[in-house]
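Minutes, structural biology subgroup

Action item carried over from last meeting: produce the structure token record for Xanthine phosphoribosyltransferase (Staphylococcus caeli). EB confirmed the sequence was re-checked against the source entry. Recorded below for completeness.
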Amino acid sequence: MDLLKQKVAADGVVIDEKILKVDGFLNHQIDARLMYDVGQTFYEQFKNEGITKILTIEASGIAPAIMAAMRFDVPCLFAKKAKPSTLKKAVYQAEIHSFTKNTTSTVVVSDEFLDENDRVLIIDDFLANGDASLGLNEIVKQAQATTVGIGIVIEKSFQPGRERLEEAGLTVSSLCKVASLSGNKVSFVEDEA
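Output recorded by EB:
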């Protein structure tokens, strides 16, 4: 996605050689037009897969996930990082470590929203080590549903996330692949259009 790549190049802030801050358009302030295009792109990639649910984790994955869900015309479901007191039903849960925040959260999804008939597309803002996507896939497995694919907005290709997801048998689609954050500069994987 050229527009996404341009936004990352222009507005992304390299914090160090492993952290890229994109608060200005993805995970603090949202560029709604860009997220609409992200949702459309994921739809084009997975439109023949019979998707019944889009699954993400709160909070940064919600914007791209809801736009994809709108295009697929299916519900957007997000795993909560804490079980609210209003959630009285059984839940599926997984431990997920955040690379950026260096914290581990137990995320939950109510069993009333996910079951064995669902074909799930997992959407997330970043792919670093793959922990979020693997955790969400674990929740899908607990529901005896099917993960059709993983849609990633920005992949840090120099980290092992893609390899871990593919080793787990998951199909990964990343819209923007970052090759390096060396020297306070974002470099992209060459095969990106």
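Discussion: Residues 155 and 177 are 5 Å apart (CA to CA).
Next step: EB to file the record with the rest of the batch.
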